[in-house]
Amino acid sequence: MNKSVELRYGDKTYSYPVIEGSEAEKAIDIGKLRAQTGLVTFDPGYGNTGSCKSAITFIDGEKGILRYRGYPIDELAEKSSFLEVCQLLITGELPPPKALDAFRADVTRHTMLHEDMKKFFEAMPKGAHPMPVLASSVSALAAFYEQPETDDDIRTAVVRLLAKMPTLAAWAYKHSIGQPFIYPRNDLDYASNLLHMMYATPCESYRIDPVVARAIDVLLILHADHEQNCSTSTVRLVGSSRAHLYASISAGISALWGPLHGGANQEVIEMLDAIAAEGGGAERFLARAKDKNDTTRLMGFGHRVYKSYDPRASILKRTCKDVISRLGTSSELLDIAMKLEEITLKDDYFISRKLYPNVDFYSGVIYKALGIPTDMFTVMFALGRLPGWIAQWIEMRQDKETRIGRPRQIYTGATERHLRR
Ligand code: CMC
User: 1 pLDDT exceeds 70?
Assistant: First the structure.
């Protein structure tokens, strides 16, 4: 097959190479386009733009495939732990048992925050949403730790961030409900420690249910990376200016908060609650979501990349049923969610646009069943996505092709004019 693409413009023909990835994904390399023709490409939302080469995550949106470093997501969710997945994403390989133990010990040892960070949380308004508090607390960490430059520095900075994020998240939550901060416990695993810091109080310890802890671990694995989505591209873009790792991650957390991205999990529960309050009939919501003159969307549905069922959503649907039955609870919201899914899968509007449940559709129902407060849903997403952001930041720094991110534009404003004074 021809490995180049020809472009005719004016009376000239230009040739651009086609590059190919390891899964046969192809792209036109237009690196010389502007210099040769004076043209730039116009691609709002970057739907057709490959911004980098990456060896971390592969998605086939048509077939519903998601793999981290080659490993299918369902195998990782079933057979690995979140810290193993962190190592896999960041180093490229699953760690041998001894290396995993050493990494786990390292992450456990760095969970405490500098005592001065308490003042940071105390300065935030009471009742603040934990997402902006988390984003700014991660940014504030850059004031405590210098920009890592060498490989060793980067490794330490990564361990610190992975270790401290659950503490920052739990403290953001504790502050939002006006309770004292709870210190990490080194005898607990990653997910259990998070639950302890969120739910224990100085008056009462929190009994960690292994079913809940494992479900949290699986949720973190499912969210760990998703190639060049909005928040990850933000992390890369900010990092491309050589900004501090923690500043880049903080920007990613802010990008994730939006309701069209990670904030959708909170919106899904609010939507399901509203449907429940109306007696369980979803017709009004569906009609609004399908109405061209209404900006309402069915939250938790649709995806830029997946044009079939999001593989994370099918794992979460199973996990959701499992968790709810093992905890011996019932969930009206799960019933509504499944009914809603059933209706949409038969509805022409959703079928013709290939809109299926995405990762956020069932994750909110699980978080709710596990007792995670609604305001913390997107924080849980951020905790899961952290190793992906880190891996992408490191890959971006090591890639010799990386240049500072700087898109062009098509200017549509006023042409030159002058002050009439
Ligand atoms: N409800 C109703 N209609 C929808 C929805 C939805 N959730 N999503 C897309 N559409 C329609 C949209 O109106 C458009 O219709 P038409 O062709 O008639 O104009 C068509 O489907 C294509 O939509 P789009 O906006 O061009 O698609 P996009 O790739 O730009 O947006 C999306 C992707 C995820 C932002 C969008 O599907 C959406 O807003 N979904 C709801 C929010 C949500 O669940 N976000 C979480 C995404 S998964 C987690 C993550 O990775 O962040």
Answer: no
